[in-house]
Amino acid sequence: VAHEAKERRRRRAQKKSQPSSNLKVRSVVKETELPDEPEAQPQPQHMSGMLPESIVNLLAARE
């Protein structure tokens, strides 16, 4: 019985430690953002709480 509980905990820990899909989104965003793109514009300071347009477009495309 104790061995079964130990196996269950081990499997649960392995599932928890697997990378989430959120990391995939971050890597896609890093690949798509290139500094030499002509459409990439620096964001003004007053919009610091807003997401960049490229990220908004990426999220909209996923839905």
TrEMBL record:
Lineage, highest ranks first: Eukaryota, Viridiplantae, Streptophyta, Embryophyta, Tracheophyta
Source organism of this protein record: Nymphaea colorata
Protein name, UniProt field: Uncharacterized protein
Region (Disordered): 1-63
